[in-house]
Predict the 3D structure of the following.
Amino acid sequence: MRLHQVDFSRISVTRSIVYSSLPLIVAEFVNLLYSQVDRIYIAHMEGTGAVALTGVGLCLPIISLISAFARLFGSNGGGPLCAIELGRGNEKEAENIMATSFSLTLVTGLAISVLVLVFCEPILYLFGASDQTFPYAQDYLQIYALGTIPVLISLSLTPFMNDLGYSSVGMVGVCIGAVTNIILDPVFIFLFDMGVKGAAVATVISQVLSATFCIGFLRSRNLPIRLRIGRLDGHVARICLLGTSGFTMGATNSIVQLVCNKCAAIWGGDLYVGVMTILNSIREIFSTPVNGLSSGAGPVMSFNYGRGDGRRVMKASNMLLLMMVIYTGAIWALLYIFPDPFIRLFTSDEELMIATHHALQIYFFGFVFMSPHMTGQQTFVALGYAKQAVFFSLFRKVIIVVPLTIFLPYLIGVDGVVLAEPISNVIGGIATYTAMRLVVFRTLGKRLANTSTIR
């Protein structure tokens, strides 16, 4: 098989982002199938589908928190640092960064597995389980916890493939796991009559295959840098400092889901926990291209920043914003006009459908404002502006969403739980992008002006 490598320094910025992003968008969609297919099959289990779906939905904040560690060590931590060093021609340093990230992933994955298995019951009740939903949530989470290490390996190593210009290979790795999951889910859930446990077993097996593929590729001798286990040395602080922004985004998503589930249970009972599960599922589907575009533009900005080409960095950031605005605007209109077909993917329960229809149109109001937020965040991360990236991750989710989710229901009832998200999109999007322009673009503009004066 002939591998296609993207040269971020030679081809146009737009083509670089497109070539890098398209495989990542496919990979993100396919990766999404892991959890979405599980939920779709579980939701249609005879007699227990609605309760089982709510039980698995309670695991989503925990899974988001686990996945956040992949951002900490990979896409937002080691990945951008590795790309910057590759742009500088510093291959040995880039390899050391990847090795340290891999070691951090292994150690953390083992620790998380042990913690989740030991404290599974109190964790699930903390995250909103009831006596009715707990057995389903426990069945899923305990098995998923056993696969934490391969899950984190496959998620954290893919960004390093992108740094090397092989985003299409990362897509193949994800597809191998997802196709396996799609095949195995009905086998374990229905044929072997394992229910929720079967969905978790299929997911773990699939992630093991993905992780094995990623390790095998990054160990190839024809790559400029090769995967190995590294020492936990001075690189740890650099990786974790920059990666904290991505971890914060993932962790705060988990916190927000926890708060939403708690508030939904208080104001609307288990029915509205089910509503939040469906809303989060639909949001994941339509946020996937946003994540893919962002991940594709990141290495383009990091690599050219390492080369000292500020003009290409700014152009990549501007193009990322334009692409995102077009996409998110179209999705906002689609979900406002045609919400029901997407809701029916996850439930056929009439009461749950009616409640979700109303909540969905509130929840996705202002979805387009995710574009400036994600563009500002990705630019900060790609160029190593760790403090700004961390602050605006906390600003949108913790400072805005969590308080609003708690207090708005006292004013307008259960609708307040879902209204917090669109308010945060508008305020957070404007604030993050404005700050990025003032901090990053002003600095790059001055450097370009000084370079022109010298010449």
